[in-house]
Amino acid sequence: MTNPTQDPRFLQDPYPTYSAMRSACPVQPVPAGSGGRPSYLVTGYAEARAALGDARLSKDTAAFFAGKESRRRLHPAVAHTMLASDPPQHTRLRKLVAKAFTTGAVAELRPFIARVTDELLDQWPTNEPFDFVGGLAVPLPVVVICELLGVPQADRPDVQRWSAELFAAGEPDVIDTASHAMADYMTGLIAAKRLDPGSSLLDRLISARDGDDHLSEEELVSLAVLLLVAGHETTTNALGNAVLALLRHPAQMDRLRVDPDAVPAALDELLRFDSPVSTATFRFSTEAVTLGGADIPAGLPVLVALGAANRDPARFPAPDQLDLDRNATAHLAFGHGIHRCVGAPLAKAELEIALRAVLTRFPGIRLAVPVERLGWRRTRLVRGLVSLPVVA
Description:
It is a single chain. The protein is mainly alpha-helical. The chain has 17 helices and ten strands. The protein has a single domain, classed as CATH 1.10.630.10. Helix content is 49%, strand content 7%. Strands 1-2-8 form a three-stranded mixed β-sheet. Strands 4-10-9 form a three-stranded antiparallel β-sheet. Strands 3-5 form a two-stranded antiparallel ribbon. The protein starts with 7 loop residues before the first helix and ends with a strand.
């Protein structure tokens, strides 16, 4: 038995593989490396939504790997984040950070996001190729989340590099080294903020109180790392994927170019069409579970393919078509249930502001290379472009 997601063509376009797997069975085992026990991959929408809300599928990675030998040396602040926890710990941690990402809190950030977007677009060359990913999709979310957390400007290039290295699929040593660099940096930043407090989200987390509860030092570092990485990686991918989708569907792009006010309503379909997170973060069965006709034994990883679920024709007819008239609000790009992305309002604000600005200021934007030459990040966790050469 081979794992079809390891086909080199999968990174370029995973959707035919997902479609074939879903047609055979929406939940099926895929082999692990080195002859280990299999994982179960969920590719159907209904099954994915059910899995994301099933308390029998734990996200407590510490419990799963307890007692198992490992050569990895991932920093605990990266290995054991809020994402890798179950209630009641998850409930407590999420409550302490959720206020920073409410609609009202994000509304206060919109002028800053718009200003940064315009400053980045001011640097774009005209009538010559340049990289959309490097010129906007990477720096905008990095600047926004660093500003929110209070990361000094001089440190932001290092932070961005470590974050990218955390997703270096197939390079465990690079990932582990980056995890320690990021955690050590955040530990130092927290110490500096204790000596010289400010008004950033990180400052508020340091002083957070929830009744008699407060964050431990380990929890503080872990939350800071998680917010920093998750706060820009997915938005970077979403921006690149959305612009590529529009460039490949000129009629849809023309609609938004003529009516930029339609951009907010188009975001859900763009997120559905090419989701920035291909596979949701780790889960495992704490007891035997039947899902989508598959009997999953206890103690096995369950991988929920969000990108596949969002292309399920049973939920989204003609799923391979980008249709901005589609009601795609039920997409799973941000997950579902108690672990749904806490930063979703911020991500959508950045997407809206950036797309509106690009379409308004550069109405003639077009691809500078054939689609087949585009490079995709070599990881099955997120789906994002290495670069997107365009001419504006």
